[in-house]
Hints:
A hairpin with a 5-residue loop joins β9 (228-238) and β10 (244-253). The protein folds into four domains: 23-134, Beta-Lactamase (2-Layer Sandwich); 149-253, 2-Layer Sandwich (Beta-Lactamase), CATH 3.30.450; 266-454, Beta-Lactamase (2-Layer Sandwich), CATH 3.30.450; 469-687, 4-Layer Sandwich (Phosphatase 2c, domain 1), CATH 3.60.40.10. It contains 20 helices and 27 strands. The strands form five sheets. It has a six-stranded antiparallel beta sheet with strand order 13-12-11-16-15-14. Strands 17-18-27-26-23-24 form a six-stranded antiparallel beta sheet, covered by helices on one side. Strands 2-1-5-4-3 form a five-stranded antiparallel beta sheet. The chain is 34% helix and 28% strand. The longest helix is centred in the middle third of the chain and has 38 residues, at 431-468. By secondary structure, the protein is α+β, with helices and mostly antiparallel strands.
Amino acid sequence: MTAEPIRSGGDRYDAETPARTGLLDVLSVSAMVIDIDGRIVFWTPQAEDLFGYTAQEALGQYAARLLIHPEHLHSVVRLFAEVLETGRSWAGAFPIRHKDGSSRLMEFRNMRLQDDLGDVYALGIAADHNLLQRVETDLALCERLINQSPIGLALLDPDLRYLLVNPALERIDGIPAEEHVGRRLREAMPLPDIDTIESALRQVLTTGTPLLDQYHVGRPPTDPDHEHAWSLSFYRLEDPGGRVLGAAASVVDVTERHRAAAEADRARRRLALIAEASTRVGTSLEVERTAHELADIAVPQLADVVAVDILDSALACRRSRRPDNGPELFRALALKAAHPTVALRAADAPGDVAAYEGDRLVTLCVHTGRPVLVRHVGEQDIPRIARDAEAGALLARAGVHSYLAVPLIAHGEVLGALDLKRTRNPLPFDEDDVILASELAGRAAVAIDNARWFQSVRNTALTLQRSLLPDHAPHHTGLELASRYQPAQATSEVGGDWYDVIPLTDDKTALVVGDVMGNGIDAAATMGRLRTATCAYADLDLEPGDVLRHLDKITCDLEHYIVTCLYAVYDPRTRQCRIANAGHMPPALAGPGHEPTLLQLPPGAPLGVGGIPFETTTVELAPGDLLVLYTDGLVETRLHPIDDRLAVLLSFLDDPGRPLEELCDLLLYGLRHPDDHDDVALLMARTS
């Protein structure tokens, strides 16, 4: 029985079409055997390819005469004898004569053979010297490239076990070569996405299609605290016969590029957040709303839990000397969390006032006017962050691991602090976060500063304005009265609108409404002077037109002020109302049994024009009639025609029997807009 050659591992060769699978096939290594007499007794097919002679032409021939040039014959015979006699092998390059007559340099390995009969032979193994040298060069080059390459290289068998890794890969993953070789990929590199990497490698082994520049991010076992990034490429390795040997992987460490890209992305997000803050923070002149806008913009991009607290003295616009280490009184303005958390229960609710001792970090922040950063919050830090032990327990339970407090500073004054905590965000606050938080806090602080001064000035202006308006009884003889004054919502300056109710002799009542054009303290002062003068002239029991004439003279002596005014006197005995108008809006009249209407009065010129007479008109009022006097701020807008607005006013008077207080509110809230830039004086009188 003839033995059938087999491959290692049990795979059988195809004897008819052997595959070129190895280095010997690539080199076409030939073999010949020469007996003691120098005759060729064994000749391989590769020798035919190398020397040009067939086995029939070579066997039995003297090797030296067939293959060696005469000038080299002596040297060859001497080497041949030495190999046969001493048994010492010889290796080297030697020129031989090809069948075509050319001389070719061959690489030889010669050694002595002895058979079972004791006969001695010489075995010669030869390969083309140039081809061998080229292969050796290629192998040396490959070895150099692999060992000196800055790119990590690995060879894996079909089971994804490491066969080889180069020094660059050892440096990249921090694992020595001996801990790679023989181990599976997932055993050496237990990355989070190892399943994805193995799946990609198996796809490459199956299809032969390489996968290039696959981006992977993870934390290697040798550096679990930092994120690394690699660019992986996979391709299949085959021998010359097409047999799959395994897969090759190239690994490029792109951690620096990844971190630079991540940092650039963080910078872009910071700039976007600052740009967003410029449009979302400070949209109104309200302190609380501005604080809420700051908290909204900081969550969750900057922190998981955000609080905005202002010093109570700053909110009251009182400048006080900051103590070095004493307590501070804070008023909570806003509180925001990115997710439900017990940390909210540890913070002061908006509107609450709390005192924080000097050893608290938020107090230190406002005392120094500098950010306070605790990258990693420990047990010793919690008591300095929380207001008390209970709040500290809640913060620890919430998982607060990083803390940052940034002062709210506007025009050199510390107003309060922006308080930031991280619970779910795994990264601690860093210096870049401090810069970003300081930028947001600075922008918000200016808006809060403007808002607090606006509110303070507005409150002062409102107090001044109301002090100039009269206090009157809701009932005068024959009249039921109600009035309102509402300042402008969009400005803090004092307005010049006023109303007045003046009791006269014989149970008569003077009703006055006026509007000094413009605003500010001067307008309010002018209004106060005119109101005083009106009361004085009313005591003289003059006709309404005469009162306006005297007021016109006074106004002309003032500094370029124009004033509209409506002056009416109601006599309950005659039920007559005598009215004079100085360029003012017409009063509205409503009552049982007739539609609401605007009284048609001679318009007259505003006070301050001078030299124009004022007419007095008499209007009969029935029991239950309602007279509505108002300033133009009630009906004028920038978007609607005045006639349309007056029609809306009359539509609200369809039930003149409604309680006057309710009717006042109905007109104000039905006709006014929160952004109106003018104040309103409203006076209602119903006859009985």
